[in-house]
Specification:
This protein is of the alpha+beta class and 664 residues long. It is built from 15 helices and 26 strands. A five-stranded mixed β-barrel has the order 1-2-3-5-4. Strands 8-7-6-9-10 form a five-stranded antiparallel β-sheet, with helices on one face. The longest helix is centred in the last third of the chain and has 35 residues, at 597-631. It is globular, with a radius of gyration of 27 Å.
Length: 664
C-alpha cells in the first residue's frame, strides 16, 4: 500500500448540545435551514441533521418556542421507572433512560385507577407527562411495561416488626419487609441479595415483601465493597443460559484459510495481575527501509466465536465492556471464552486477527494489512520482567528472548515514540494507584502504580494498530466505530486559563489550542508542588471521549483516525471493528450483513454509556476499599493536598492513598 496522503482535517458534525446552545442564543425563530447554514452542513449531513433534530424534540431538550431549559424539561411521552416515595407517601419516578448532564426533573406518578395492583419499586411504565412546577412533572400511566424482577442488594436486619432489608443503593430510600420463611437463613447484619415478591392487590407502594436469594456474608467483609458498587450501577452479572451454552460449546479453530503465525515468536506483555491476555506483539527490522520496522499486533479473534445476533452477542452488547475491580472482574464474555479460547496463553494454538504494519525510521505508519491467522504465544511476560530484561537484569526465561524479541520491540518503540513527540500528544501526569489485597481479601496496601517504558511500548503498538484499523475501514468505505475525542469546550478553556494564571502560566484565549499547547504548560509546572493539581485541572477541561461512527479525530492523541481494535475480549466497540475488517479483507466476509449507519449511531451511544457506567462502578469500589483501609488508621496524621475550598469546608486528597474527602 502506498503511503497515505496527508488527510484533510475532518469537519466536525454538531452535537445535540451544540445545536441546542445555538438555538437558545439565536434571536427569533430558528429552523433547520438556519442550523445547517450555521454549522456548514450540506448533502448527506442534512439528513443526519433531520434525525438529530427529531431526537432533540423527542427528548424535550427545547420547549415549544425553542428556548427551553434542557435540564428541566421532559418529552410529553416517555418510559419511567418507579424510584420510591417522598415524605408524604407520593410515588416518585425517574426517566428509564437519562443521558443529559445533571439530575432529572422530579416526577410524581398519578394514581392508576384502571390497573390491577400498585406499581412497585423498579416497575416501568409508559407515561404522559405534564409540567406542574419548575422542574416538577406529573405523570399519568398510559400502560405498564413488563420487566423482570430486579434483584436488590441490602443489609438484612431484624426489628420489632420483623425482618427488614435496608438497600445499599443510595437512590432507593425505602426499606423492604422480609418474613422469616423468606429470610433464607440470613443473620442480622448480613449482606444479601433479594428479589421482590408479588405485591398484594390494592396495597400501596409501602414495604414491599422480598425474599433472600443469596447470602453474601457480613456487611463488613471485603467482598461486599465490589458487590455494592456493581449493584448500585446496575452492571449485568449473570449471563443468560443460552450465552453460557454457546461459550461452553466453543472449541479450537482450524488453520483453513488463515495465515500461519505459529512459528513467529509473538509474546503477550501484561500486568502481573492481568486476568485476560488478548494481544500479542512482534517486531523486526524492515530490510527494505533503512531504520524502518516491521511490526505485528495479533489480537484474539473474538468474532470467530461471537456471531452477530447470537445469545453471546446480545449479552456482550448489553454489557458493552468488562469492568475491573480490585477483587474481581465482571467480564463482557463468559469465562470459557475470556479466559479460554480467546486468551492467548503460551504454547496453545489460538485464532487471531493480525495487524501487520510497516513504519519508517521516524515512526510514521507507511503501509499495513489485516489478516486472520492462527498463532501460538511464545511467552506470557509481565511489564516488570520485560523492563528488567531491557535494563540488563533478565530473568532466566527471558535470556533467550532478548535478541530475537525484546530488543526489536524496543527498537520499534523508539521510532513510534519519536512520531508521538513530533505530532504532539496531550501527556498528562496523574498518579495512578493500585489496591493490593491480602490473602484474607482485605486491603494490605495502596501503592502508586509504576509507569515503565514497557507500558508505553505496548501502548504505542496498540495505538498504531488502532490507527491502521480506522484507516483501513475508511479506505474500504465501511462503517467504523471510531474512538473520538473532541476539542476542549471554549468555556472550560477560559476557566482553565483563569486558574492557570494564578500559577504564572499563560493560556491565551485567542490562540488555537492543540494537545501540544497543553503539554508544554504541563512541562513548565513539572516538579513544582502544584504540578498534580494543574494536571488534574487540564484533565477536567477535556471533552469526554466516546464511541461514534462519525469521525472527528482524537484530540488527546493528536490523531485524525482512531478506532479501538485491540481488545474485543473486553470492549464491544472492538468487536464491531473486527467484524467490519473481516468484511473488508475477506472475500464474502459479510459486507452485506453489517448494520446500517443508524444502528451504528445507536450502538455508539449505548457502549459509551456502558463505558461510563463501568468506570463509575470501578471508582466507587476503589473508594469503598480505600475507606475500609483507612478505617483502622483513625487518629493518624497524613500528608494531603487541598483541591477545593467552599464555605462549608476543604476538599482534600491524601498523598499516600489517593483518598479524598471533605474537611468541615
Amino acid at each position: 500500500m502506498a503511503k497515505d496522503k496527508p488527510p484533510k482535517a475532518p469537519r466536525r458534525f454538531p452535537s445535540k448540545a451544540d445545536i441546542v446552545a445555538f438555538v437558545r442564543k439565536s434571536p427569533g425563530k430558528v429552523g433547520k435551514r438556519e442550523i445547517a447554514r450555521a454549522f456548514s452542513l450540506r448533502g448527506d449531513d442534512r439528513m443526519a441533521l433531520k434525525a438529530i433534530l427529531k431526537e432533540i424534540k423527542d427528548e424535550g431538550l427545547l420547549d415549544k418556542d425553542g428556548k427551553g431549559d434542557a435540564t428541566g424539561t421532559l418529552p410529553p411521552v416517555l418510559v419511567v421507572e418507579v424510584s420510591g416515595l417522598d415524605e408524604d407517601g407520593e410515588v416518585l419516578a425517574r426517566p428509564a433512560s437519562w443521558t443529559r448532564e445533571g439530575p432529572p426533573p422530579t416526577i410524581y406518578l398519578a394514581p392508576d385507577s384502571h390497573s390491577r395492583g400498585a406499581l412497585a419499586l423498579g416497575d416501568r411504565a409508559l407515561v404522559r407527562t405534564r409540567r406542574v412546577g419548575d422542574g416538577v412533572f406529573e405523570a399519568h400511566i398510559i400502560r405498564r411495561l413488563e420487566s423482570s424482577p430486579k434483584r436488590i442488594l441490602g443489609v438484612y436486619e431484624v426489628g420489632s416488626q420483623g425482618g427488614r432489608l435496608r438497600p445499599t443503593e443510595k437512590r432507593i430510600r425505602k426499606e423492604f419487609s422480609i418474613s422469616r420463611e423468606h429470610a433464607g437463613g440470613a443473620e442480622p447484619g448480613e449482606l444479601v441479595l433479594a428479589e421482590p415478591l408479588p405485591q398484594r392487590r390494592g396495597a400501596r407502594l409501602g414495604l414491599r415483601p422480598v425474599k433472600v436469594v443469596e447470602r453474601l456474608g457480613s456487611v463488613g467483609e471485603p467482598r461486599g465493597h465490589s458487590l455494592i458498587a456493581i449493584h448500585e450501577h446496575d452492571l449485568p452479572v449473570e449471563f443468560p443460559a443460552a450465552a453460557l451454552e454457546q461459550a461452553t460449546a466453543a472449541g479450537p479453530a482450524e488453520l483453513g484459510q488463515r495465515i500461519d503465525l505459529r512459528g513467529l515468536p509473538l509474546v503477550t506483555i501484561d500486568g502481573a495481575d492481568a486476568r485476560d491476555f488478548d494481544d500479542a506483539v512482534f517486531a523486526e527490522p524492515d530490510t527494505k527501509v533503512t531504520g524502518g520496522w516491521h511490526i505485528l499486533v495479533a489480537i484474539a479473534d473474538v468474532a470467530h466465536y461471537v456471531a452477530p445476533g447470537s445469545a453471546l452477542d446480545r449479552a456482550a452488547y448489553e454489557r458493552g465492556n468488562s469492568a475491573y475491580f480490585p477483587d474481581r472482574v465482571v467480564p463482557m464474555l463468559p469465562e470459557a471464552l475470556s479466559n479460554g479460547w480467546c486468551s492467548l496463553v503460551p504454547d496453545e494454538e489460538r485464532p487471531c486477527f493480525a495487524a501487520e504494519m510497516w513504519i519508517d525510521a521516524g515512526g510514521q505508519l507507511t503501509r499495513w494489512r489485516f489478516q486472520r491467522g492462527l498463532m501460538r504465544s511464545a511467552a506470557r511476560l509481565t511489564y516488570e520482567e520485560v523492563q528488567a530484561a531491557r535494563d540488563g537484569h533478565p530473568a532466566a526465561k527471558l535470556k533467550p528472548l532478548i535478541e530475537t524479541v525484546i530488543s526489536p520491540l524496543y527498537g520499534a518503540f523508539a521510532a513510534l515514540l519519536a512520531a508521538r513527540q513530533v505530532r504532539g500528544t496531550l501527556d498528562l501526569e496523574i498518579p495512578e494507584r493500585q489496591i493490593l489485597l491480602g490473602e484474607d481479601g482485605r486491603v494490605a496496601a495502596i501503592e502508586p502504580r509504576t509507569r515503565l517504558d514497557s507500558h508505553r511500548l505496548i501502548e504505542e503498538f496498540m495505538i498504531t494498530a488502532n490507527v491502521a484499523a480506522a484507516k483501513e475501514l475508511e479506505r474500504h468505505r465501511l462503517p467504523c466505530m471510531y474512538r473520538i475525542h473532541d476539542r476542549p469546550d471554549t468555556e472550560k478553556l477560559a476557566a482553565l486559563a483563569e486558574i492557570l494564571s494564578s500559577f504564572g502560566l499563560k493560556l491565551s484565549r485567542g490562540q488555537v489550542i492543540r494537545p501540544k499547547t497543553l503539554t508544554n504548560l504541563l512541562h513548565k509546572v513539572s516538579g513544582r508542588p502544584e504540578a498534580t493539581m494543574v494536571n488534574e485541572l487540564v484533565l477536567r477541561s477535556q471533552s469526554q471521549a466516546e464511541y461514534n461512527p462519525r469521525n472527528i479525530g482524537h484530540f488527546g492523541l493528536a490523531l485524525t483516525h482512531y478506532a479501538h481494535f485491540t481488545s474485543p475480549i473486553r470492549r464491544y466497540a472492538d468487536l464491531l471493528v473486527h467484524r467490519a475488517l473481516i468484511a473488508a479483507v475477506e472475500p464474502g466476509g459479510g459486507r452485506h450483513e453489517l448494520p446500517d449507519e443508524a444502528w451504528f449511531e445507536e450502538a455508539g451511544q449505548h457502549i459509551s454509556r456502558t463505558e461510563r457506567r463501568a468506570a463509575a462502578a470501578e471508582r466507587d469500589a476503589v473508594d469503598r476499599f480505600t475507606a475500609a483501609f483507612l478505617q483502622g488508621r483513625i487518629g493518624e496524621w497524613f500528608q494531603g493536598r487541598v483541591n477545593g475550598v467552599t464555605r462549608f469546608g476543604l476538599f482534600v486528597t491524601l498523598d499516600e492513598s489517593g483518598a479524598d474527602g471533605l474537611v468541615p
